[in-house]
Amino acid sequence: MIFSSVDHVPKTDPVALFDAIEARYRNRFLWCSPDQQTVIVGGGAVATVAGGGTKRFKIASRQWSEVSSRLGHDHDPGKPALGPLLLGGFAFGPTSAKAEPWETFGNASLVVPEVMLTVSEGNAYLTTNRASKSTEAKTPDWLEAVLGTSYAPRQASLGNWRLHPAPSAEEWKRQVAELARRLASGAPRKVVLARKCLLFAGGEIDVPETLASLRDAYPDCYVFAIGNGDKTFIGASPERLVKLNQGWVEAGSLAGSMRRGAAGEEDDELCRQLLLSHKERDEHNIVTRALREDLEAAGVRLDAPPASPTVRKLRNVQHLFTPVQGRVTTPLSILDLAGALHPTPAVGGYPRAEALRAIARIEGFERGWYAGPIGWVNQSGDGEMAVGIRSALIQGTNAWLYAGCGILPDSDPESELAESQLKLQPILGALAVRE
Asked: Is 195 left (phi over 0), alpha (psi -120 to 50) or beta?
């Protein structure tokens, strides 16, 4: 039996707590939803859910049901992000984390943390999970010292650093051109082709400092971190995969991209070009249609779609966006929904099976957890998953950065390269690296 105690505590900076947790726990987790509506920081593991293969989402859902049956708590069940939560995520593919540098992460890894801070609706709560109710729920001294504090920025320096794209920019453009020609001759209709860049730093990369920079620069994104031993996967993702709350499902099509303008007039013109672009609208419509098909097939009754997409503006890029939402008609958990949707055409392609075969043939590297589902689930099966993009894996003085672009028959290699560089900027900026 695992027992969970929840206490109201002073509002605490999540990065300050993550900083304290980093030196104490092998398993670490940070989640800040857009505008920090829900913040979760966890450390340690009193229970683990893991799995691999094509049925890993079903395996994780079944394991979580079994673990949940052994959980007791004293919290208000009306607050969905409190009490014993399962925190973690999944690799992009069923075997994507089998090789370095991802081998310690596994293809599905979620934990019930030993300690967890949740900030929700302006209030902060500390959840302590322990082996039995009889064990005293005493807050450790180090944790008491962190509660109520703010993160103190540090002067971190990477020293002399090198950025090594693999493949090179020229090789990647050649891959894009060849793929576009293949797409023009038939299926698949779209393939998301990713790039990987290796950063070699002259000094230790400061993970909490990088997270603080991401959170401050991208408040409208999901800022996340998942630590496993000496490696941490971090990112600032603009893309929700799916959210489930008391039967209500929220997803969204975020596809079709354009850079931001330097001033208001230029930015408005680029926004207009994005809305009128045949290529970007086609890419967006593929994602929207697939999301609706997959959710309906899973047992979600969807609301009618809006007449046209809107534009979601981020700090350095803007995307077409269409909400997809509705209500479940059969018992489903957030893990079931994530398994039904992942990978969406926004990170894989369409049709799914053919696009994934093209990715495996062309990219030449394992994506690991890049573009995989990251998030949390509660005992009721409610929760939220984001897509692990605009992200990097950090280990000591090294980092592996990833970015992907949706390739269609009329894709221009130079434009796709420029878009991929825009998508690398959040992580590069947080690391204080300038290409």
From this structure: beta
Q: Please give the residue range of the domain that contains residue 347.
A: 162-205+249-372+392-430
- Give the C-alpha separation, 433 to 435, whole Å: 6
Let me know if residue 47 belongs to a domain: no
Using omega within 30 degrees of 0 as the cis cutoff, is the peptide bond preceding 343 cis? yes
Residues labelled catalytic: 190, 239
* Cα 380 from Cα 335, distance rounded (Å): 11
**Residue 421: inside a domain:** yes
Beta bridge partners of residue 248, listed in sequence order: 245, 327
Give how many domains the chain has, as a whole number: 1
Strands (E), 329-377: 349-350, 373-377
For the cut 60, the answer to whether the pLDDT of residue 152 exceeds it is yes
Q: Are 43 and 233 in contact (CB under 8 A)?
A: no
Question: Residue 102 pLDDT > 70, yes or no?
Answer: yes
Helices (H), 23-155: 56-68, 141-146
For the domain that residue 258 is a member of, what is the CATH number? 3.60.120.10
Amino acid 434: pLDDT? 57
User: Which residues face 317 on adjacent strands?
Assistant: 259
Q: Is residue 218 part of a domain?
A: no
* 431/43: higher pLDDT: 43
Lowest mean pLDDT among 158-162, 399-403, 407-411: 158-162
State the pTM of this model: 0.95
d(CA 196, CA 400): 7
Position 349 in a domain? yes
Tell me what the mean pLDDT of segment 338-348 comes to: 97
Rounded distance, CA 241 to CA 89, Å? 12
